[in-house]
Amino acid sequence: MLEESSGTSLCQIALDPDDPTGCGGLCALETEACHLVDKARGVRVCRPLVAAACAARQWRCKNGFCVSEHARCNGSIECYDRSDEMYCDCVLTKEFRCGQSISCFPKAKLCDGAIDCWDGLDEINCTPECPDYQFTCTNGECIASSRFCDGLADCSDHSDEPTGCEGGCNAHEIRCSNKRCIPRILRCDGRDDCGDNSDELQCP
User: Fold this and answer.
1) Given 94, 123, 152, which residue is the final one in a domain?
2) What is the C-alpha to C-alpha distance for residues 157 and 148, in angstroms, rounded to an integer?
């Protein structure tokens, strides 16, 4: 229940039922704060923010509350309005920033198997590339290039045994050293299409 400036109580439908302040998202985050004025009846009012100074080593949230300066952009929400994790300027030589300039994390947390960013950006595109002498499975595993197309699935996702590894090649195909068939047009195109690089050997 919100109370109007006239002193009469008026029930309003909450815009944000999860608003931790208790005013249901009806207060303007930038200029108002929610205050409980009658605990027995649960009456709350939106009042203009009073710009009281934060103590030394504190940071002001957009809704006026003060939090530790170390709370700013540390990946943990401390302000009710989440403003302590918005528009973060990270030290990009040591940190990375999540999508939409949200939060800063040490670079050691990139691709560590645990999602730290709200949008999961720290765990996207983490598949490592294998050395040239190895085959990169679709799931990121590395196996010896000689095991590609050898009739046995060495990658746990079986991506080292794709269609074309067995049987005779068609007229428009060539057979790789590992017995895989690939289109003849791919020979000597500068890419390892066979998986063992045999299509790029003895090229003019």
Assistant:
1) 123
2) 13
